[in-house]
Design goal:
By secondary structure, this protein is an alpha/beta fold. The protein folds into two domains: 5-253, 3-Layer(aba) Sandwich (Rossmann fold), CATH 3.40.50; 272-384, no CATH class. The protein is 42% helix and 13% strand. It is built from 14 helices and eight strands. The protein has helices at 12-15, 40-44, 61-75, 91-100, 160-164, 188-198, 214-221, 233-245, 272-287, 292-303, 307-334, 343-359, 363-370, 374-384, and strands at residues 5-8, 24-29, 76-86, 104-112, 127-134, 168-170, 204-207, 225-229. An eight-stranded mixed sheet has the order 1-8-7-2-3-5-4-6, with helices on both faces. Helix 7 (214-221) links the parallel strand 7 and strand 8 (225-229). Helix 3 crosses helix 4 (91-100) and helix 9 (272-287) packs antiparallel against helix 10. The longest helix is centred in the last third of the chain and has 28 residues, at 307-334. The radius of gyration is 29 Å and the shape is elongated. 28% of the residues are buried. The model is unreliable at 38-46 (pLDDT under 50). Bound molecules: S-adenosylmethionine. The site of S-adenosylmethionine has 20 residues, from helix 1.
Length: 385
């Protein structure tokens, strides 16, 4: 056995107890469901290539789950994550066991797969639950840009990164009728997604219920160390020979290199000149009936800022504009403030007000310049600064 994997043919409840506290970076657990999986071969008509000896969960599913989850919590680092895959039939028991262990739920992912088993008198089940858990509320390893850069879009101009970060995952099950397998193999694409997001090269990834060793295979391929257990001797012997032949980190060579193109001025203080430019360009383009999303993208490019920086400035502009219109209505009847009657001049006033309020703390001074009542100045300051 090399340093890269530590895989044992043992009950995980016994094996996990041998592992030191706070030593593992990621746990991926796909336990037996506690329903009679022995019948699965029959349903899927795939008896021929299925390895015998699948070990089922004990009767007391909740207590048993509590015990193995407790050990996973103990061995995981504070920055580590536990992913538990569960069907809906035992979800209640799993959630209770998680709660009793005081783990924090970071996400509840739905994995939607193809090839659901056809049912005539009820809906076809085609999803699993993936519970993403941490010892602490936040601070877990999460490699946001491991698969897509912020600039990558599909043909509908949607952000591939945003889609990938959603908590509903569309990943197909693998259809390989001629391959020898233990029941319920997870797709490698699913493990690749989990491992890339939640661990780094050289980290330890542990799977207490290895089955077909999918977690271990993908982890080793991506240069992570693979630890785990499988109680079924037949599975263990068969898949250990495959693991022994794998080249550590081989998959990294062909892994897509993600380019993260950050806006040039990201993180730098935004100048008054740019703020005013953004206000003005936005007004100009939107009054010319340009689509708001396209305008925002244009502003991102022109001012070399990220989406959120532009959004932030524009949100302030909306608040200010509303304040200005309220004021305008009042002024029309009560004062001779003629320049406010013109849209263009209203805008000029808007920019001017924004600049004055953001550059001085002295409300009296602002009142003198803008003729605004103090409560309105305070209100604008509260909303825009
Ligand atoms: C749902 S399968 C895991 C499938 C796996 N994720 C894959 O992609 O192939 C659960 C596996 O856990 C094994 N198992 C059941 N109880 C176990 C225990 N207490 N310790 C270790 N393995 C166990 C079963 O034999 C089975 O292979």
């Amino acid at each position: 056995m090399t340093d890269n994997y530590k895989i044992i043919n043992e009950d995980c409840l016994i094996g996990l107890k041998e592992i030191k506290d706070d030593s593992v970076n990621l746990v991926v657990a796909d336990p037996p469901f506690g329903i009679n999986e022995a019948t699965f071969g029959k349903h899927y008509k795939r008896k021929d290539n299925v390895i015998d000896g699948y070990v089922h969960a004990p009767e007391n599913y909740e207590d048993w789950s509590y015990e193995w989850i407790k050990e996973c919590k103990r061995i995981i680092k504070n920055t580590g994550t536990i992913y538990i895959i569960s069907g809906w039939s035992k979800l209640g028991e799993i959630l209770n066991a998680i709660k009793k262990n005081n783990l924090h739920t970071i996400n509840h992912v739905i994995w939607r797969y193809n090839f659901g088993v056809f049912t005539q008198k009820k809906y076809v089940t085609s999803h699993y639950h993936i519970l993403v858990l941490g010892k602490q509320k936040k601070g877990q390893t999460f490699n946001t840009y491991c698969r897509f850069g912020p600039q990558e879009k599909n043909e509908k101009k949607q952000s591939l990164l945003n889609i990938d970060l959603e908590d509903v995952w569309y990943i197909n099950k693998e259809f390989a009728p001629d391959q020898i397998k233990n029941s319920n193999k997870l797709p490698e694409a699913l493990l690749e997604k989990i491992i890339l997001y939640a661990s780094n090269q050289g980290d330890i990834v542990l799977d207490p219920f290895l089955g077909n060793f999918t977690t271990a295979k993908v982890a080793l391929n991506l240069g992570r160390k693979a630890w785990g257990f499988e109680l079924n001797k037949e599975s263990f012997d068969y898949f250990m020979t495959i693991i022994a032949e794998l080249e550590f980190g081989k998959g990294l060579e062909t892994l897509k290199k993600v380019e993260i193109i950050k806006p040039k001025k990201q993180g730098k203080k935004i100048t008054d000149e740019d703020k005013l430019g953004i206000f003005k360009d936005y007004e100009d383009l939107v009054t010319k009936k340009k689509n708001k999303k396209d305008v925002t993208e244009y502003l991102q490019k022109k001012y070399e800022r990220g989406k959120f920086a532009i959004k932030n400035i524009l949100d302030k502009q909306v608040i200010l504009k509303n304040e200005m219109f309220k004021r305008y209505k009042k002024d029309k009847t009560t004062t001779n403030d003629t320049y406010l009657k013109d849209e263009g001049l209203l805008l000029a006033k808007l920019f001017e007000t924004y600049l004055i309020i953001s550059n001085t703390d002295d409300n009296k001074e602002i009142k003198k310049i803008t003729n605004y009542p103090t409560h309105e100045i305070k209100n604008i300051r509260k909303n825009i600064l």
